[in-house]
Structure formats: structure tokens, C-alpha cells
Amino acid sequence: MFKKITLLSIATSLALANSFSVNEEKYELDNISVTSSSLGTNNIDYVDISEKASGNIRNALRQIPGIYMGGTSNLNQKIHIRGLNEKAINITIDGARQMGNIFHHSANLIIDADMIKAVDVGTGVLSVVNNSGSLGGSVAFSTIDAIDLLQDGNLVGGKVKTSYATNNKEWQNSLALAGAHHGFSILAYAKHNSYEFGKSANNQRIGGTDGKDTNVLIKLAYEKDEHKVKLSYENTDYKGRYPLKGEFGITDNTAILSQSTPRKTLIFNYAYNPSDIIDFNLKFYNTKHTLSHQFTKEDILLANLSKPNTIKDSNVNTFGFYINNKTILGNDEINNTLRYGVEYYKTTGYNSNIKEFKIDSTKQNVSFTPMPNSPKDKTSNFSAYLEDRIKINNFYITPGLRVDKYTLDNSGAKKQSFNNISPALALEYDFTNGLNVFAGYQKAFRGPAPVEVFKVSQIVTSVISDDLKPETGSLYEGGLSYNYENDDLNIQAIAKYFYADYKNLIKELASTDKTTTYVRKNTGGAKISGMELFAKLAYKDFSASFSYTKQDTKYKDGFKTSSKNGSTSLAKGDVLAYTDMGDKYTLNLEYNFANLDTILGYNLLAFSSKTLEDKSKRAGFGVSDVYLAYYPSYVKNLELNLSVNNIFNKLYVSHTTRGANMGANTDYEAGRNIRFGFAYSF
Asked: Do residues 198 and 645 touch, judged by C-beta distance below 8 A?
């Protein structure tokens, strides 16, 4: 029997689940339905990514209310939530934090969409559980496990997948193998991805070329009785030739340079769950993310490169651990779900393998002079939390409290400490007719992050701001949801209003003279408000869903800064999006032709125009995609995918880009792109 696949599940309850706990549910790659139990959390799953043949995480996340994501290459994919950029969002991969800011013209998220089985997106911060450092939300990626590839009790299994995209001539090929025996299991996954420049609807080059992206994921696990142990290692590397500043458009004068962005992550996890009293989870991880600008002699001569005049590896290393437990007390009518634990993480930003280069007078040769490694800018945070979800019949109240101790060492010049207490409260009531109402509040806290790593080696003097304050925010949201379900019909709807008042937002500032100094300063704050709507109807083999997101940002206080050309601008916190964004609309229509083993779908992503504070205007746009997935019943475990993105070849610019005006230096999104592929599980 052909299975109906749920593309988007939306939360209708306020149970604040721990995103980092071990999930005991067995996933099936041909029918994954991962529900969320957090207020303001949506889920997309592996099948969603596979069916739409998106090839990257951008196309999938764009459909989620409250989420904005742009960028024309993997080197420039940036997530935004409710007016804040990725610096203010907790991003994890299998629980390992992805921290730091390497280069503001490039992205910091390095991830392979093909290895993802679930993405848990939390808009807003309404839980104290493992949410230290987040001002606006969280994105938790979960990768495949060995059990996901083992079918019908088989001890060995695997999956091979390949796809091709016409816009940038991209080939993706991956192989996953798994085995299990007497409680032991192993997963080995490898992928290679090649591509050239893509093109926008006006035939402007976008992205990068000579791509040789690779990914390797290895997981070892052992399970016996109530004990689970897992060790994983991942090495993902985007490697190719890109513009130095990936967020700008490519012109005839743009230097195209050899770059790579390897990320290496090692995770150890132990879980013990003998009863409702003890659901224990221990996780250690270390992740290192690098932006390697080891430009070749040919790169430098071809571009006549004079700035920057160094090549280097810019690195962010994060080590951390969690110790968590969950305790359930009571009965079906009245109970308490307690979550408590501690978290520690330390992030270090530094440059290595630095060489100064000089082009000789003949313009034919380049000399390289080794330079000392840069200072290391370090931050660390230790937090402890307690949260109690209290159920009294149909009423739920969830108070929580987190204590943070944050330390900043200012590149070794001086240590500063920041202590904070963050309370939270969430309320929910379930009516018997499927209606649910909810409201919540939390005090958010974020300590000063490590200095942008790319600039650390340029610092001659690090100016200490003795009066520097941590970034804080008061977050509120409330709304209602509705869920109705019978044999043939399912209706889901959710409406939310949110408001956030941020204070002491931090800006990193550099001097404009040759004696470069660098300083962190509080710039003021911002008030961000808006609403998110989502509705879905599924009747038999047909489903339709619609979402709407609106947000407005009002900047508070701040001060003027001067650029090298003498112009001035208002300094805003580095965690804020470049500008406000227009109202966002999404539409998904899908029909399951069960007798043909085929799913056919349509997606619309649209933004209204937006007039900004400086009277410039972001243009509105609407982009349509279609996709088809074929699962032939006569060949078990085979799937064929075809998608056409931007079917009408629309010329448009993401509202997350730096500039609102459209011109030669604009990072246009991709024009029409036809992607087809197949996957076979065995």
C-alpha cells in the first residue's frame, strides 16, 4: 500500500520537549512524520527534502513561517528568524552547537542536506532547556542513524542517491551503509558534489564554480537494556572558487578565488532511561569550522589582488557538554514533567597558517612570507536550568529558570564576566473541541560573542569596553491553534502574535586608520513584533497548506558611525538582519496519486514590497516551484524525483541580502532550475 507522506507538521501543544534528548522512535525513510511538542516549533523531515529534490537546506526552510533564508551558494546560506540573523539563533547539528562568526560576508552554517532526517525549527525562545545564548530561536538538525537504513529487521542495509541540477550543472552522489548486530550498530555515509556557476534570470553568474564538496559521516552505537551509547564523527567541506565577498553579486571585475570551508564535528552521547524518574542524557562534542583563504599564485595574479594581502585559515572551535535529566511524576490528570541539567561550552576564534604575499614588479610572480598566528579570542558559558511542566487536567503551566555565567577574554587582553538569571513562563489550555490557546514569556540573554575571526589578525590594538553589557531581551508570544481529524479529513491551524524588546545590542567596530583598533560597543536596542499564521487541510489524497508571516523592527537609540569615505550611518546590533523584510506568504498544494505511486506538488514563496527607514524599497516577488516524486510499487525502495524551481524564471533578490537596490552588484537568486534524481534503499 502506498503511504501518504506528511510534508509539514506544526505544533499544536506547548509541551517544551528537550531537543537534544535521544529519540527512541524508529524512523522510516519512506514515511517520516516527526511532530513537535514545543510552542512555536515547526518540523520538516527527510522525505520533504528528498521529494522536493531541493539539494540544499535553503529551499526546505523557506517554507516555514517566521523563517527567512537566502544566499545563492552553500558558502552564503544564512538563516534569519523574526528579524534576527544566525548570530542570535542557536544552531545545532545532533546537539553540537555551531558557534562563531568567521566572516560577515559569508555564512557560518556548513551542512549537507542529504544526511538530514529532521529539522526542528523553534521560532522564539520559550524554554530554558539548552537555550543559553539564543535571542530569537533555534534550529536543530538531526542526521541519519544506522537504524534509519535497516528495514524489516535486516542486519545490513544502505541507500545510494544521485541527482543533477541544470542551473549550475550540479551532480550530487551519496552512499550510506549500515549494519547492526547484538546491540551494536554502525553507519558510514559519504557524498561528493560538483558544480559550476549558476545563473540568475538575467544570466548573471551566481554562486561558485569548480565545486568539489565532500562529506563523510560515521556513527557507532551500542544499546543494551536502558543504556545507549553513540559516537559520531563528521567531516563536511565546501570547496571551490567563489567571490571573496559571497553576499554580493558577481560582475566582470569580481575576483574569483579558491576557498574551502571544512567543518569537523565529534560527538559522544550516553543515555540512560530505566524509569519515568530517570531519563538521563550526557553529551560531549567538539566542532571546528574553518574558512580557508589559501589563495593560489594563479588566483592572486589573475585578480591582481592587493587587499587582503594575506592568505590564512580563519577558525572557530567549540567544545561543549550537556548533562540533562527528565523526571515525570503524577498520573494522567495531574502530573509534573521536570527537566533539569547543566550546559557548558567554550568557543575560540583564531587565524592560522597566515602568509603575507606580494606581487613583484613584473606582475608574474608572487612571494609569500609566513606570519605568526593571530591572538585567540575566547568566550565560555556555564548554565544550569530547571523547568517544570505542570499538567492539571487540560491546563498546562510551565515555569522555568536558567542561570548563566559568561566569560569573555578579549583576545587575551582582559577577562570580563557576565552573570544572568533568565526566567520563563508558558501557559496552555486544551479545549475538548480541538481548540488550544497558549501564551509565553522569557527573558533572553546573550554574552558578547568572539570577534569576527577574519578581522582578528588585522587587530593591532583591542580596545576594552569596561562598560560593555550583555545583550538581553524580553520575549512575549501568544496565540491559538486548532486541530480536527477523522478518517479522511484533517484540519490544522495556528495563529501567533509575538513581541520582543531587545536591549544593549552589540556592534563590533574597527577604526578607519592604519593603526587598526577593534572594539565592541552597545548600540542601543530594537523592538520586533509580528504575527505568524499557518493553516493546512488534508482530505484523502489531497493536501493544501498556507502560511503568512509579518514582522516589523523599530530601532532604539544607537549612534552614528563614519566610514572611510566619510559617510555616516546608524550603528545597529550585529545580530539584527540587514533590513526589515516584506510580508511573507507560502502556499503548498499536493496530491497523492496512490494508484500511480506518484506525488505531485506545487510551492509558492512570495514577499510583498517593503519601504525601509532610508526610504529605499525592497521589491516584492513571487516564485513558483513544482515537484514530482515517483515510488514504483514494482521496484521496492526505489524513488525518482523531479522538480522545477523558479518555473517562470523570475528575477528576484532575497529580502535577507545586504542591499535593497537591484543592480550589477546584487546577489540575485537562481533562475529556473530543473533537478532530477533517484535514490534506492537496500
From this structure: no
Task: List pLDDT tens digits, range 259-302.
Answer: 999 999 999 999 999 999 999 999 999 999 999 988 888 888 88
- The set of residues, in sequence order, having a beta carbon less than 8 Å from that of 489 and lying 6+ positions away, is 537, 538, 539
- Return the C-alpha cell found at 227: 543504556
Closest CA to 647 of 172, 166, 249: 166
The pLDDT of residue 499 is above 70: yes
The CA-based diameter of the chain, rounded to the nearest angstrom, is 83
Output DSSP code: residue 555: E
580/264: higher pLDDT:
264
153 DSSP 8-state letter? T
Highest mean pLDDT among 59-63, 121-125, 365-369, 623-627: 623-627
pTM: 0.89
Provide the grid cell at 359. Answer: 606581487
> What is the Cα–Cα distance from 122 to 440, expressed in whole angstroms?
14
Question: Is 92 a residue whose pLDDT tops 90?
Answer: yes
Is 133 within 8 Å of 86 (Cβ atoms)? no
Q: What CA–CA distance (Å, rounded) separates 202 from 649?
A: 9
Residues in the chain: 682
Return all residues near 107 (Cβ < 8 A) that are at least 6 apart. Answer: 71, 74, 75, 76, 77, 78, 86, 246
Distance from C-alpha of 193 to C-alpha of 213, rounded to nearest angstrom: 5
**For residue 681, is pLDDT > 50?**
yes
- Interatomic CA distance for residues 235 and 207, integer angstroms: 22
Distance, CA of 289 to CA of 103 (rounded, Å): 12
CB-count exposure of residue 345 (10 Å: 0-12, 13-18, 19+): buried
SS3 content of the chain, % helix, strand, coil (to 5): 5, 55, 40
Q: What is the dihedral of CA 589, 32, 97, 449, to 10 degrees?
A: 10
Q: Which three cell numbers stand for residue 53?
A: 529534490
Q: What is the mean pLDDT of residues 580-599?
A: 92
pLDDT at 251 over 80: yes
Mind listing the pLDDT tens digit for each residue in 37-86? 345 344 443 345 555 545 667 776 777 788 888 777 777 788 889 999 98
The CA distance from 282 to 280, in Å, is: 7
Please say whether the beta carbons of 13 and 37 come within 8 A: yes
E strands along 486-514, which residues?
A: 489-510
With H, G, I as helix, E, B as strand and everything else as coil, classify residue 390. Answer: strand
